[in-house]
Amino acid sequence: MRPINDVHVAEPGLAVVEVAAADDQTAFAVQELLATRWAIATADRTVREPGEPGVRLRCYLDLRQQPDT
Predict the structure, then answer these.
(1) Residue 47 and residue 20 in contact, taking contact as beta carbons nearer than 8 Å
(2) Positions of E strands within the chain
(3) What is the torsion angle, in degrees rounded to the nearest 10, for the CA atoms of residue 5, residue 9, residue 14 and residue 16?
(4) How far is residue 64's CA from residue 58's CA, in Å, rounded to a whole number?
(5) What b/e string do you get for 50-65 counting C-beta neighbours within 10 Å, with b at 16 or more?
(6) Which of 45, 60, 67, 68 is deepest in the core (most CB within 10 A)?
């Protein structure tokens, strides 16, 4: 995965969440769970790192805002 950009954590209430999971379905389920509580910029795909188990997904949270409903 690419390094985290300073702008994504520039202020209190902003967070980058990286999910490591066995499969895509699990990673997206975690992302969906986060989206029910906070405003989130979702990922549309997971990443497989050679030599590492499972998949990774990165999403960006803004704890200062309510999720879109």
Answers:
(1) no
(2) 14-21, 39-41, 55-62
(3) 50
(4) 19
(5) eeeeebbbbbbbbeee
(6) 60
